[in-house]
Design a protein that fits this description.
Elements lengths: L1 E5 L3 H12 L5 E5 L3 H9 L5 E2 L2 H6 L3 E4 L3 H14 L5 E4 L5 H6 L9 E6 L20 E5 L6 H13 L3 E5 L1 H29 L3 H7 L2 H7 L6 H10 L1 H23 L3 H11 L2 H4 L3
Parallel strand pairs: 1-2, 1-4, 2-3, 4-5, 5-6, 7-8
Antiparallel strand pairs: 6-7
């Protein structure tokens, strides 16, 4: 099987590594917007070669879109026009409603499978690609009733070859849940990093005193701003809802501490500990 990966960074590059290792792909083609990334992707063995989008799509069984969601929004209809008759397009975007709407009336809508693998790190570019990134993670598949049965089956087989578990949602439902369990985490991390950088003028103190708690909380602030700017733009309404709820809870905590109601803060923290039932590790 020939697979084209459009965007050979963390997600696309890691996918390429595993699909080569497990034998799912016989030939891997990369499409990159910079020559440096193209050279790096080939040198690292992520893909066999890089070429222009139209040429790559024409000879591919599967095209995987692993670019930021705003470019993907404009690229997706074009890619559906470029693939062979039995080709399949799978996206890896963190938002789904706008993407599905963009091809809602496309004559080849059935060849598209809307997906979101819930995996990642804070790093980007071909050098960030790592093996087994997707192992035991969830692959969210959306609007599967609009995909042709053979296209859906191929996408499911691809994700299962990575040992992922399938979760099915409609696009709007996905974007709501993604705002609460993923997008807010990155906003929180960015804001914490800004707060510390603004108030703590000594970089030495940040480095020397930042223990595991701070480092793990602020880790996501290292994530590529371009990717997350696009996500915030496409999922604005849901992100504002979760931000308003988050700010209300932060304000409550601040007021309780200001008023010396530490027993109440203790109760809230005990309540928050219930997350252990869902996320034990």
């Amino acid at each position: 099987m020939t697979i084209t990966i459009v965007g050979t960074g963390l997600i696309g590059g890691s996918l390429a590594l595993d699909l080569r290792a497990n034998g799912f792909a016989e030939r891997l083609i990369g499409v990159e917007h910079t020559s440096d990334h193209a050279v790096e992707a080939i040198q690292k063995g992520l893909v066999d070669e890089c070429m222009e989008l139209a040429i790559a799509c024409a000879q591919s069984d599967v095209v995987v879109l692993a670019v930021p969601v705003n470019p993907m929004l404009h690229m997706l209809p074009n890619v559906l026009d470029l693939i062979p008759a039995n080709g399949v397009v799978i996206d890896m975007g963190s938002t789904k409603h706008a993407l599905c709407k963009a091809v809602d009336n496309h004559p080849r809508r059935g060849r598209y499978v809307a997906a979101h693998p819930m995996a990642g790190t804070e790093y980007s570019g071909p050098s960030a690609a790592i093996p087994h990134l997707f192992h035991a993670k969830a692959a969210i598949l959306c609007e599967t009733e609009r995909s042709d049965p053979d296209a859906l089956k191929l996408a499911e087989r691809l994700f299962k070859s990575l040992f992922m578990r399938m979760v099915y949602m409609n696009p709007a439902e996905h974007d709501v849940h993604a705002a609460y369990v993923s997008h807010i985490s990155h906003i929180t991390s960015y804001v914490l990093a800004l707060t510390v950088l603004e108030k703590e003028k000594s970089e030495g103190n940040i480095f020397n005193m930042a223990s595991g708690g701070f480092a793990s909380t602020v880790r996501l602030a290292k994530s590529p701003p371009k990717m997350w700017r696009d996500i915030y733009e496409q999922n604005t309404e849901n992100i504002l809802d979760v931000l308003n709820a988050y700010i209300e809870n932060m304000t409550q905590f601040r007021n309780l501490i200001q008023e010396g109601q530490f027993d109440h803060t203790f109760s809230l923290m005990e309540e928050a500990n219930q997350i252990r039932r869902i996320l034990p590790n």
